[in-house]
């Protein structure tokens, strides 16, 4: 269909031109016939490329029409001569405004030259012809630029729809990640604390029995707090936009909770409060950093500093290092990565590492939230619509003004009150500029102005010979009818503009015609003459008004349908995104109720009954259930379970290697099984070390993992390229978490050692297995 529209116009133009010439009554010369036919053919063929190469086509058409103007009698190529206007319109639609301006200036200069070398128009004169030509070409360019802006708006709407579709596609994943952070924040602060305190009480209960009672009290109190927090989270799943209080108050409450666990924490918060998303991120990252300090630096002083200036948020969490043995087996290594993801989601950065003076530092920097620029007062500028308005006014006024202001010997013109006529011409033309904002008012004004001409003639102020100037009002009325159909509110009533304009225009024009001197011989009564003239004028004026209304109505309906379709598509994609996020919240709420809340309730019950072993079992079971829920959130529910990421343990190393092989990479694995249960943190760290070392694309690679001895030995050959240092940073953090080291192996390459001591407390195998799976859901 698009290709059909491209060649239909050139074909119709060429056929119409050849039909009216050279088939004229006076046969042209053979040279003129050949020239005219060649020009018509060249121009028609060139128009086939008017959309793909409009500037080149404009050059070809200009040259061909120049040849036609010099070799063919004047005004016989009138139809094919409009080709330059067609191509200039396509230039304005398809090319930037600078090229359009240059092309329009060149085309206008060429047309003015053609008018100068051609035969003069005795009625208009060269200046008027030039002004009309410039106005006509300016209107063509303005309409083309308006179409260009329409296409740009449609492209913008398509981009908005694509963005909405992307949000819809990402909605479930985005909500899963958000909920994963929320769940991690709850469990890291509550359930992990229970495991830490209960484990310490079990380990030291023989020498300090008072710790057992304190651990039971803490587990009972914290278990109930955990239940309350989880119930609040379930409620927030229904109200995702609810926001807690100021960040400084939330950090103070967070610090107080960790002080009860024996971790000295101080908070320094400057004036001002970060915006909602930045405050949530700062509190969540502070909670994660404090939890890590509790695990790996128990008893060490921790300082939290929060500063907000010019919309920029900076959070620093420093600890002085451990004052006692840390607790292993309750983390899964995703804490720092999760903090970085949360910072990156807001366009910020997070750094974590050892402090030169000892201890650990976590630093978060968030940029100012994007805000809309301050509103500025609207500034008038000359755009396509303004050019169209000016040129329409010029075209409507140029002919009557040229007649009124010309130095003519016609006594009818010299006796006429020129100032009064100018007022009438302006009254019927200037309102056109307001047709978009006040279409009905414009129609009323130009309709009333049309009656000025018969009244002035009856009053004897204007001679009948100038009555034809009423045509200015008739043209303005047709434009006003189009404007009512196109822009007026209540489009269902816009059809009333046809009879309103038709009645006034027909009666006013008929009244002017009836005043013709020959009509006053008394043969036909004035009323009868008025009716007869009205009937004759009703057809052409009614056709013009009806056509103008239909054109405006169809353009309005088409544009309305396009805009409504774009709006509905964006709204539908947004609604689907909201529904997908709601479905994820419902799924998480169901998972919380099914497992996590049940096991968490058992923690408080077991603590009230004084059963510290059951407290530990229930807390670890709740953590395990939470981790399973979070693993489901981080994975794609639509993927086959076999394709999901393996659980991060040494038992999953063959599966990790198979995934790389399935991706087309050659990976060899030499694995010596541990033959015994490994501590959960070491088990996880061994997997993560191999995962990090396989991250680089180094071609064929070999993995050696000796997990049978103490320490575990891991090596990958060749080592991955690490231009940004991300792999090295990840390895340092992973080794530091479990007290691992890096040495030089027998082959000269690096080898990574992870300590694998016997499990403390002499746990039975089934108890040890429970300890392994009860790692924190932070990773």
UniProtKB/TrEMBL annotation:
CDD domains: HATPase_UhpB-NarQ-NarX-like. Residues 746-779 are annotated as: Disordered. Keywords: ATP-binding, Kinase, Membrane, Nucleotide-binding, Phosphoprotein, Signal, Transferase, Transmembrane, Transmembrane helix, Two-component regulatory system. Its EC number is 2.7.13.3. One of its GO terms (cellular component) is membrane. The chain crosses the membrane at residues 29-48, 55-71, 124-144, 387-407, 413-434, 441-462, 468-485, 492-515, 527-555. Residues 285-368 form the Histidine kinase/HSP90-like ATPase domain. InterPro entries: HATPase_C_sf (IPR036890), HATPase_dom (IPR003594), Sensor_HK_TwoCompSys (IPR050482), Sig_transdc_His_kin_sub3_dim/P (IPR011712). It catalyses: ATP + protein L-histidine = ADP + protein N-phospho-L-histidine. Residues 175-241 form the Signal transduction histidine kinase subgroup 3 dimerisation and phosphoacceptor domain. It is an enzyme of class 2 (transferase). GO terms for molecular function: ATP binding; phosphorelay sensor kinase activity; protein dimerization activity. It comes from the Bacteria. Residues 1-25 form the signal peptide. Gene3D superfamilies: 1.20.5.1930, Histidine kinase-like ATPase, C-terminal domain (3.30.565.10). PANTHER family: NITRATE/NITRITE SENSOR PROTEIN NARX-RELATED, NITRATE_NITRITE SENSOR PROTEIN NARQ. This is histidine kinase.
